[in-house]
Amino acid sequence: MGKIQLTRVRKSFGEVAVIPGLDLTIENGEFVVFVGPSGCGKSTLLRLIAGLEDTTSGVIDIDGQDATNLPPAKRGLAMVFQSYALYPHMTVRKNIAFPLKMAGMAQAEQDRRVERAAKVLNLTDYLDRRPGQLSGGQRQRVAIGRAIVREPAAFLFDEPLSNLDAALRVGMRQEISELHQSLQTTMIYVTHDQVEAMTMADKIVVLNAGRIEQVGAPLELYNAPRNIFVAGFIGSPRMNLIEGAEAARHGAHTIGIRPEHISVGDGPWEGVVGLAEHLGSDSFLKVAVDGIGTLTVRAPGEVSARHGDRIRLAWAGKLHRFDAEGLAL
Amino acid sequence: MATHSSRLAARLMVAPSVVVLFIWMIVPLAMTIYYSFRLYRLISPERAGWTGFRNYAWFLNSPEFWQAISNTLLLVGGVLVITVILGTLIALLIDQPVWGQGPLRILVISPFFVMPPVAASIWENLFMHPQNGMFASFALGLGMKPILFMEQYPMASVIFIVAWEWLPFATLILLTALQSLSSEQLEAAEMDGATALDRFRYIILPHLTRAITVVILIQTIFLLGIFGEIFTTTQGGPGSASTTLPYMIFKQAIAAKDIGRAAAGGIIAVILANIVAYFLMRGIGRHLDA
Questions:
Q1: B279 CA to chain A: closest CA distance, Å?
Q2: DSSP string for residues in A225-265
Q3: Most C-beta atoms within 10 A of its C-beta, which of A1, B29, B119, B162?
Q4: What is the pTM of this model?
């Protein structure tokens, strides 16, 4: 079981309110991703749930029990840190067994669980090495191993992939998703990378300046962002936001069009190509459109446009309208 | 530093300083060895000729000698135990965020800046003196007899004074090591259910091993030669109760004016230091590797 409920949780460091008050429910078995720009309070929120920071006010419920003032070890949660925080002087086996040893578990049961975790994570051959002798991905797996042997109510991940190179990151992303599929345990995952959020989450919580901007399934956020912040943050490349006369024509203060919803060829807009990135599968163009400004365009496949070409664009797909406060209309 | 010629050039450039260092080391050592086999007494007219191993034999047969050896080891061992244990505890304490951390740390470090004879004088005359000392007036105030530190417990008093001087050094090294411990490791251990004591034992202490090794090695080098504190306070007495090997050599060289015997003592001290170094490196040297 791992249902976590936050009620009016506030956190201030001195005068600065990092989290000015927030309500959130995380259902049992959900994969929830906290996403937001640096300094938005997502790591602080995770540390509040873990018990590594004290709440200034508010209540944290874990499985219906008030855990606000419980020490971290008593909350039944396991955490994977950004730096992995492995114990450098212990072997992989001892690292993974450490929480079990601290819980006073019998040696035989410890060994059994460590062996099983090592098998799941492909670490069996490395059990007698030290963390210093492992690669980044292997260290990451040891950190996860140390978390899963405890059979916690929920896993907390604090930007666990940010120290890995791009290829490894994609691989570990899949491994963590598969782990969630097989364990069916609640996972809370903090990242600033919206691609990780979109690919892994059952539910994304978009945070900005300690406030929840929107909560929802990945495609919900993509298709129906509640405000300009979410619209700009979810989706890559960023949504084009257009103000002025063009927006007024659609009866809004600002309109947003995703780069993939603009087609090249015929259309009402004309502009000069600034930057053209050809990836083979996609082409990203930055086009200075007359009377509107620079638009990012994502065209599927290969497009012959080069820097300095004049091309015509058309809007083809969903258009997001926002009022002067930035809320979706 | 990869090619053959650049390696050769590097060796040639380093060579002069290596030669100077070698001469710097070998000349005094050779002279000491030379004198240790000579009859060379400043207060007697006979100060020429070889004596074979007689200077060494005198040293090894002297009743003072074995006491001096054991006092030397006691001093080194005692000070190491006190400074490492107390140093670790004080480092843990002043690593905590407190108001006035900067001045507090300077205060903790300051005994290290007091010159050894001054420190020894202060302790002897202001604290441990049986008439004027603070401990004596405490004892009198409680209706007890003052303790005669330098007479009854000379070795313990010297160890205490030297430990006071070296505690800041140990604290400083251990504090910097403590500050390099990642807080995420401690938090991870906390999440894993480790109590404060567990965290100290399984995370902090292993992290400090290398720093403790450095403290032990460096302090041993300096503690083997401790002289000023003994000279200022007990003068090696009463009798020879607090005579260490360096102090015994000093007595032969300056008090007895026997250069030959003092030189022999010096060579014995070099051998002792090498034995200690050998066992130290075998015992804890492996902690120095990354």
A1: 24
A2: -SBHHHHHHSSSSPPEEEESHHHHHTTSSEEEE-GGGEEEE
A3: B162
A4: 0.80
